[in-house]
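Changelog-linked ticket: WQD example.
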Amino acid sequence: MKKILVTGGCGYIGSHTIADLIENGYAVISIDNNSRSHAGILDGVKKITGQRVKNYPIDLCNYADTYAVFQENTDIAGIIHFAAYKAVGESVANPLLYFENNIVSLVNILKCAKAFGVAHFVFSSSCTVYGNPAHIPVTETTPLQPAASPYGSTKQMGERMVDETVKGGGLQAILLRYFNPVGAHPSNEIGEMPVGKPANLVPAITQTAIGKLGTLEVHGNDYATRDGSCLRDYIHVCDIAHAHTLSLNYLMAQKNQYACEVFNLGSGNGYTVLEVIAAFEKESGASLNYRTGPRRAGDVEAIYANNDKAVQALGWTIRYGLSDMMRTAWQWECRLKTDENLFNRQDAGLN
Ligand code: WQD
C-alpha cells in the first residue's frame, strides 16, 4: 500500500479524508499538533476503517521536528497538506499569526518533500482566493481578486509557492479550492468540532438548535441575492474528502498535463443563508431561533463553483445534497450533546 502523509489529519476535512484514503487502499500517517483539533478524532476514524492511524503531534513550523518525521517514514508516496489556521475573522485581528503559521509550515513541508523525493503533493486551498468575483459561477480561470482577508492572502501565496516549487521538477501538485465544506460522516463517528464559538454558518446553526448558542445572527439581508442574504456553495465534507483521494490517484497515474493543476471543489449550486436555515429546519424538524443583524466585514456577497473540471478530469461525482448536509450535521451535533466524553473534548478545550 502506498503511504500518504496527511498534515492536519485530526482536523475536520483531514479526518474525513483519512477515512476515505484508507477505504480506497492507502496507508496513512498524520502530522497534527492538535492546536486546533483533538487526536481523539482518530478513534472515530478507527471505528470507521478498523485502522489505527499514527499521528505525530509536532509543530510544522519546526523544521527539525518535521524533517524527523520524514526520516522515520522514508516511504511517503504523497502528501496532502491541510494544516493551517482558517478563521477569516481571526486572521483580520492577528495577520502575523496567520502569515507565520500558514506560510512557515508550508515552506517546511515543501522543503521536506523535496529533500525526501516525495513525488505527489495536494494543497488545501480555498474559494477565498477568488475574493469578490465579478461573475459567478467561478471557474479555475476566473481572475483572482485581492483577497478579502489575511487568511485568503495565505491561500493565494500558498498556491503560488507550490506552483513555483514544482517548476523545479520532481514534485507534481494539485491545488484544491474548497467552497464551503459542511456536514459529517454518515457513520456519525466523526464530524466538525469547532474550537470555541463557531464562526461558520452550519455549526452555528446546529449549536443554536441544540441550545448551546442562544440566537443565530444572519449577517446581513440587504445583498443583491434572491432573498438578501449571502449566497455560498455548500459541499458535503465527504465529497470534498473523496476528491483528495481522486487527486492522488490522478497524480499517481500521471494523468496530469501540467506539474501543478488547480480544481474547484464545490457542488455547483448556490444557496443563500436563509435557504440553508430553511433546509436545516426541514431536515431536523427544529425551529431555529435566528435574527438578522449587520453585514459581516470581509464577507463576499455571492460565490459558487463551476466544478466541470474536477468532474471531468478527476472523475468526481457529488454524492450528497443540501438535505444530506443538514441531516448529517444535525446528527453529529446531537451525538456531541449525548456523548459528553466523546474524544475527551474538555481536555482539548473544544466546546
Ligand atoms: C457563510 C455565510 C456568513 C455565521 C468559509 C471559511 C473559509 C473558507 C470558505 C475553507 C456568510 C453567514 C455565518 C453566522 C451568518 N473555507 N453566517 N451567521 O465566510 O463563506 O468562509 O468557507 O477554506 O475558511 O470561513 O463561511 O460559514 O463563515 O459563512 O449569517 O453565525 O453564512 O455571513 O454569508 P465563509 P461561513
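Closing comment: Example verified and attached. Confidence is low (pLDDT under 50) at residues 346-351. Residues 86, 88, 126-128, 178, 180, 199-201, 204, 216-219, 230, 232, 273, 296, 299 surround WQD (CB under 6 Å).
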